[in-house]
Amino acid sequence: MHFQRFYLTCGALFALLLSGCGTTPTPIGQATVVPTERVALKPVVSSSNPATVTLIRDTGLQGVEHVFEFWINGQQIVELEAGEKFALPIEPGSVILEVRMFNVLGKIAPAQVETIFAPGGSYVYRAGIDSTLRLHLTRDVQLSK
Protein backbone atom coordinates (compact mmCIF):
# COMPACT_ATOMS: atom_id res chain seq x y z
CA MET A 1 0.00 0.00 0.00
CA HIS A 2 2.79 2.44 0.91
CA PHE A 3 4.69 1.51 -2.26
CA GLN A 4 1.65 2.32 -4.42
CA ARG A 5 1.33 5.80 -2.88
CA PHE A 6 5.06 6.32 -3.26
CA TYR A 7 5.00 5.41 -6.98
CA LEU A 8 1.88 7.50 -7.60
CA THR A 9 3.46 10.49 -5.87
CA CYS A 10 6.73 10.08 -7.78
CA GLY A 11 4.85 9.72 -11.06
CA ALA A 12 2.80 12.86 -10.41
CA LEU A 13 5.88 14.88 -9.49
CA PHE A 14 7.72 13.65 -12.59
CA ALA A 15 4.76 14.62 -14.81
CA LEU A 16 4.64 18.10 -13.24
CA LEU A 17 8.38 18.52 -13.72
CA LEU A 18 8.22 17.60 -17.39
CA SER A 19 5.20 19.77 -18.10
CA GLY A 20 6.90 22.72 -16.37
CA CYS A 21 10.00 22.49 -18.53
CA GLY A 22 8.38 23.62 -21.76
CA THR A 23 7.32 27.15 -22.60
CA THR A 24 3.75 28.37 -22.34
CA PRO A 25 2.02 30.91 -24.60
CA THR A 26 2.39 34.50 -23.49
CA PRO A 27 -0.80 36.51 -24.12
CA ILE A 28 -0.03 39.13 -26.77
CA GLY A 29 -1.31 41.91 -24.51
CA GLN A 30 1.06 40.85 -21.72
CA ALA A 31 4.15 40.49 -23.90
CA THR A 32 6.50 43.46 -23.64
CA VAL A 33 7.96 45.20 -26.67
CA VAL A 34 11.61 44.34 -27.21
CA PRO A 35 14.12 47.13 -26.45
CA THR A 36 15.49 48.79 -29.60
CA GLU A 37 19.07 47.76 -28.79
CA ARG A 38 18.14 44.14 -29.57
CA VAL A 39 16.63 44.95 -32.96
CA ALA A 40 19.32 43.95 -35.45
CA LEU A 41 17.59 44.94 -38.69
CA LYS A 42 14.29 46.25 -39.99
CA PRO A 43 13.85 45.02 -43.56
CA VAL A 44 13.21 47.64 -46.23
CA VAL A 45 9.63 47.34 -47.48
CA SER A 46 8.65 48.84 -50.84
CA SER A 47 5.12 47.43 -51.05
CA SER A 48 2.25 49.89 -50.69
CA ASN A 49 0.31 47.17 -48.84
CA PRO A 50 2.84 45.25 -46.73
CA ALA A 51 2.05 42.32 -44.49
CA THR A 52 2.70 42.63 -40.75
CA VAL A 53 4.39 39.92 -38.72
CA THR A 54 4.51 39.83 -34.92
CA LEU A 55 7.02 37.53 -33.25
CA ILE A 56 6.40 36.44 -29.65
CA ARG A 57 8.86 34.64 -27.41
CA ASP A 58 6.82 32.50 -25.03
CA THR A 59 7.63 32.11 -21.33
CA GLY A 60 8.39 29.09 -19.17
CA LEU A 61 11.19 27.42 -17.28
CA GLN A 62 13.06 25.81 -20.14
CA GLY A 63 15.44 28.07 -22.05
CA VAL A 64 14.33 31.18 -20.18
CA GLU A 65 17.94 32.21 -19.60
CA HIS A 66 18.70 32.17 -23.34
CA VAL A 67 17.96 34.79 -25.95
CA PHE A 68 16.14 33.65 -29.09
CA GLU A 69 17.31 35.08 -32.41
CA PHE A 70 14.67 35.57 -35.12
CA TRP A 71 15.74 35.47 -38.73
CA ILE A 72 13.72 36.36 -41.83
CA ASN A 73 14.95 35.26 -45.25
CA GLY A 74 18.45 34.63 -43.92
CA GLN A 75 18.85 37.95 -42.08
CA GLN A 76 18.85 38.29 -38.32
CA ILE A 77 16.03 40.66 -37.34
CA VAL A 78 15.74 40.68 -33.55
CA GLU A 79 16.73 38.98 -30.30
CA LEU A 80 13.88 38.26 -27.88
CA GLU A 81 13.92 37.25 -24.25
CA ALA A 82 11.05 35.35 -22.64
CA GLY A 83 7.77 37.27 -22.70
CA GLU A 84 8.81 39.77 -25.37
CA LYS A 85 7.34 40.61 -28.78
CA PHE A 86 8.37 42.45 -31.93
CA ALA A 87 6.17 43.55 -34.83
CA LEU A 88 7.34 44.73 -38.23
CA PRO A 89 6.03 45.31 -41.74
CA ILE A 90 7.26 42.82 -44.28
CA GLU A 91 7.20 42.48 -48.05
CA PRO A 92 4.32 40.19 -49.14
CA GLY A 93 5.30 36.90 -50.75
CA SER A 94 7.32 33.83 -49.86
CA VAL A 95 9.11 34.18 -46.52
CA ILE A 96 11.35 31.92 -44.45
CA LEU A 97 11.10 32.52 -40.70
CA GLU A 98 13.66 30.98 -38.39
CA VAL A 99 14.32 30.95 -34.66
CA ARG A 100 17.74 30.12 -33.22
CA MET A 101 19.02 29.85 -29.68
CA PHE A 102 22.65 30.15 -28.68
CA ASN A 103 23.66 27.20 -26.59
CA VAL A 104 27.06 26.00 -25.50
CA LEU A 105 26.18 22.37 -26.16
CA GLY A 106 25.41 23.07 -29.81
CA LYS A 107 22.66 20.44 -29.80
CA ILE A 108 19.56 22.62 -30.10
CA ALA A 109 18.63 22.87 -33.76
CA PRO A 110 16.96 25.97 -35.18
CA ALA A 111 13.27 25.85 -36.10
CA GLN A 112 12.25 27.08 -39.53
CA VAL A 113 8.92 27.84 -41.22
CA GLU A 114 8.39 28.69 -44.87
CA THR A 115 5.18 30.57 -45.58
CA ILE A 116 3.53 33.06 -47.91
CA PHE A 117 2.43 36.44 -46.58
CA ALA A 118 -0.53 38.08 -48.32
CA PRO A 119 -0.60 41.83 -48.92
CA GLY A 120 -2.15 43.56 -45.91
CA GLY A 121 -2.18 40.32 -43.89
CA SER A 122 -1.37 40.23 -40.19
CA TYR A 123 0.55 37.20 -38.91
CA VAL A 124 1.54 36.22 -35.37
CA TYR A 125 4.23 33.60 -34.73
CA ARG A 126 5.20 32.14 -31.37
CA ALA A 127 8.55 30.64 -30.46
CA GLY A 128 9.42 28.45 -27.51
CA ILE A 129 11.22 25.33 -26.46
CA ASP A 130 9.75 22.02 -25.31
CA SER A 131 10.79 19.60 -22.60
CA THR A 132 12.96 17.66 -25.07
CA LEU A 133 14.99 20.83 -25.85
CA ARG A 134 13.48 21.34 -29.31
CA LEU A 135 12.73 24.84 -30.51
CA HIS A 136 9.35 25.43 -32.07
CA LEU A 137 8.03 28.25 -34.23
CA THR A 138 4.30 28.16 -34.90
CA ARG A 139 1.70 30.49 -36.32
CA ASP A 140 -0.95 31.60 -33.82
CA VAL A 141 -3.96 31.20 -36.11
CA GLN A 142 -6.37 32.84 -33.65
CA LEU A 143 -4.36 36.08 -33.61
CA SER A 144 -3.45 36.08 -37.32
CA LYS A 145 -5.77 37.71 -39.86
Model description:
The chain is mainly beta and 145 residues long. It has a single domain, classed as Carboxypeptidase-like, regulatory domain (Immunoglobulin-like), CATH 2.60.40. The protein has one helix and eleven strands; from the N terminus they run αβββββββββββ. The strands form three sheets. The protein has a five-stranded mixed β-sheet with strand order 2-7-3-10-11, with no helix packed on it. The relative contact order is 0.22. Mean pLDDT is 81; it is low at 2-21.
Provide the gyration radius in Å: 18 Å
Strand content: 35-45%
Major sheet attributes: 5 strands, mixed
Overall mean confidence score, pLDDT: 81
Provide key terms for this protein.
Immunoglobulin-like; globular; 1 helix; 145 residues; 4-stranded antiparallel β-sheet; 5-stranded mixed β-sheet; single chain; 41% strand; disordered N terminus; mainly beta
What is this structure's SSE topology?
Blueprint: H1 2-21, E1 23-24, E2 32-33, E3 51-57, E4 59-60, E5 68-72, E6 75-80, E7 84-90, E8 93-101, E9 111-117, E10 122-129, E11 135-139
Parallel strand pairs: 2-7, 3-10
Antiparallel strand pairs: 1-4, 3-7, 5-6, 5-8, 8-9, 10-11
